[in-house]
Amino acid sequence: MAIEITGTGRAIPFRRIGNDELAEKIDTSDEWIRSHTGIGARHIADENTACSDLALEAAKNALAMAAGFQWPAGFSGFDTFGDPAAGLSEGDRADRDKAAAEYAGTIDLILLGTATADYCGCPPTACIVQDKLGAGQAAAMDISACCTGFIYGLETAAGLLNISGERKRALVIGSEVLSRLIDWDDRSTAVLFGDGAGAAVLEKTSGASAGQDRRGLLRSILGADGSGRESLIFRRGGSRNPFKAGEVVDKPIRLEMNGQEVYYFAVKAVTMTIEKLLKQEGVTIDEVSRIVPHQANARIVQAAGKRLRIPMEKFFLNIEEYANTSAASIPIALDELNRKGELKKGNLIMTIGFGGGLTYGGNLIVW
Ligand code: ACO
Question: Which of 188, 233, 254 to mutate to test the pocket of ligand 1 (most atoms within 8 A of CB)?
Fold first, then answer.
């Protein structure tokens, strides 16, 4: 028995803000952003779009793929959200929705990784998605592991599928609307983030889980170092520091970040996780087809690659177009690769992530 990914999907807001446009509003430049991060643009949700809306669209694309939906020629899964003229026609969209709705009825579990939930803790955003998908028999909960949310989500879903003979299918989503919770006057964070969602359908199959023909999720490493919890933090609004009656709030909730601390932690975490995954599985880096890292900063990936002598071509980076979409970045990247046909059956794929908490982790998957 194997736990395989049978469908992927993504949703990217239509509105794109390039570095030059951002530099008209804050004291920064395309040159600084590119040279320090590798970011060229970010996509931003409109004011009516929340985390669950992006998650729902990505989930429908993943479910329809798992259901075997025939995508119209040329559909790349890119930029359909918020732009009725792009992507799927009305008819194709209705057919996609029908295929997704039928499959949603067979899903046993929905896990949604996010740091920018629709509401503050209650209700879970996953429950909103569960309702809108019509996934009536699915349990649903959010995974709060920030940018590592999708990696934690895959391993949690696999564990819950394995534990019970009754559960066969899970939907794991990463979705973020970080644009709403950052301070657009703080150039040290405003240039880094974007919005988006990605999703994957996980299914228990009759494939082998060991040996040469093994398939699906092989193993994961999950870790945390809570001593770094203040390096990335929404300080206000929770039970530690709630907004008070009568208080005048001059800024929306804002993400505070100690960039250098996160940077050093990330390089160490990525390096260590790659080494551990290879060692525990008994494989070499040459056997890994692609590494899909969390897209936070291209320099972090370059530094880790250099330390381990892994050629940069092995890492898939799309940060130039989407910036850092936190928990959504890995499933967005997986879907992009998948729809381009770059993930072939039998390929060994590694995901690597890190983020607020501080958390980190990685998965090894035979596609
Ligand atoms: N535009 C222009 N100049 C800037 C900007 C900007 N957007 N931001 C900072 N600067 C300036 C600073 O003011 C400073 O100027 P000074 O030397 O005159 O004081 C100079 O650039 C250097 O600033 P540093 O903060 O030292 O820049 P650094 O090289 O460390 O890069 C960065 C900053 C890109 C944030 C880096 O530390 C980093 O990538 N850290 C990791 C961040 C990260 O990955 N966060 C998210 C992970 S978790 C998650 O995804 C939620």
Answer: 188
Q: Report the distance separating Cα 355 and Cα 263, nearest Å.
A: 10
Q: For tokens 């003229």, what's the residue? A: 85
Ligand 1 atom with minimal separation from the 329 CA:
50
pLDDT tens by residue, 225-244: 999 999 999 999 899 999 88
Q: What are the tens digits of pLDDT across the range 180-238?
A: 999 999 999 999 999 999 999 999 999 888 888 899 999 999 999 999 999 999 999 89
Contact 149, 197 (CB under 8 A): no
- Domain range 2-205, CATH architecture: 3-Layer(aba) Sandwich (3.40)
Q: Is the CB of 262 under 6 A from ligand 1?
A: yes
- HEC letters along 257-285: ECHHHHHHHHHHHHHHHHHHHHHHHCCCH
Spatial distance between the Cα atoms of 341 and 353, rounded to a whole number of angstroms: 23
Looking at domain 216-366, does it have CATH number 3.40.190.10?
no
Residue nearest to atom 29 of ligand 1 (CA): 36
Chain region(s) in the chain for CATH 3.40.47.10 = 2-205, 216-366
Reported as a single tens digit per residue, the pLDDT across 63-99 is 999 999 998 877 776 555 555 556 788 888 899 999 9
**Is the alpha carbon torsion for 357, 45, 10, 21 positive or negative?**
negative
Instruction: Give me the residues paired with residue 10 across strands.
Output: 198
**Nearest-atom index, ligand 1, CA of 37:** 34
**363 with 220: CB under 8 angstroms?**
yes
